[in-house]
Design a protein that fits this description.
With about 260 residues, the protein is mainly α. It contains 12 helices and 3 strands, in the order H-H-H-H-H-H-H-E-E-E-H-H-H-H-H. A 3-stranded antiparallel sheet has the order 1-2-3. Strand 1 and strand 2 form a beta hairpin. Helix 6 (about 110-120) crosses helix 10 (about 210-225). The N and C termini lie far apart (about 65 Å).
């Protein structure tokens, strides 16, 4: 109820609840009010030794802190709990040629529109699935993203190349509430989007495991290669901090142009 009142996204709430359920099971039979910082450190050490990812352990810490500090109203109860160091991993991206090959392998009109929007507008999968038909602004060539990550609205660009297919899709499918709907009228499933993208990647002969988020990374990197200002890319992606967007400078081709080939 607290998560709902604070308007956390359904996905975040689901993760927090799942993490906290595992935490409670670990201390089964022990009253939650009696658990102290050393107990929690033992639990986090257990997660680390179980080869849980840095992301999962941070989510576990967040869920524990939320329960004690927000639900029970004990501010900074576990303020000094150590978090694992974040690993700095570069985003996996596709080349422009790879993206073109991928799109060429998608024959279904609905699937082509899905893959096309993921890439050309830089959408997160959840943002794509939440789109409504009215969110496509053909006059301004923009896509409205409602309540994206962090409960923020924003706009992104709408590709001119995709307009004919989107127009045909709207005419043929006539979606009601959601732009991409499942068989029962609700939003198209996240797993179906993943299958569409990954299978197209296999058919295109791309050796990487292609995911929807990889298309978002590719969108940002390709814009950077075209000379688009980093601040504009930050706005399109909906990043709070420019530091998050700066990661793409480490994979963009233009960052390495002008460097001599030592073997030539």
């Amino acid at each position: 109820e607290k998560l709902e009142l604070k308007q956390y996204s359904k996905n975040t709430a689901r993760i927090y609840i799942a993490c906290f359920e595992k935490f409670m099971r670990f201390f089964e039979g022990v009253p939650l009010a009696q658990i102290d910082e050393n107990d929690i450190r033992d639990y986090l050490l257990h997660l680390s030794r179980s080869n849980r990812s840095t992301s999962y352990i941070n989510q576990a810490v967040n869920s524990i802190k939320f329960y004690y500090e927000v639900v029970l109203g004990m501010p900074n109860r576990f303020y000094s709990i150590e978090r694992p160091r974040k690993r700095k991993k570069l985003p996996e991206i596709l080349s422009v040629a790879d993206v073109q090959s991928l799109l060429a392998q998608v024959g279904n009109l609905k699937h082509r529109c899905i893959v096309g929007l993921l890439y050309s507008s830089g959408l997160r999968r959840a943002e794509l699935l939440a789109l409504k038909p009215a969110d496509l602004d053909f006059n301004r060539m923009m896509v409205r993203i409602r309540q994206g990550k962090g409960n923020k609205d924003r706009y992104s660009i709408l590709s001119k190349t995709l307009i004919p297919e989107l127009t045909e899709y709207l005419h043929r499918y006539n979606p009601d509430k959601y732009l991409f709907e499942g068989p029962n009228g609700g939003p198209y499933s996240a797993s179906s989007v993943l299958k569409v993208v990954s299978r197209a990647g296999v058919r295109a002969g791309i050796r990487k495991h292609v995911t929807p988020h990889m298309l978002r990374h590719s969108f940002a990197t390709h814009l950077l290669d075209k000379g688009v200002d980093l601040r504009k890319i930050q706005v399109l992606l909906g990043h709070n901090s420019s530091k998050t967007t700066e990661i793409y400078t480490h994979v963009a081709e233009h960052s390495f142009k002008g460097i001599d080939d030592l073997l030539s």
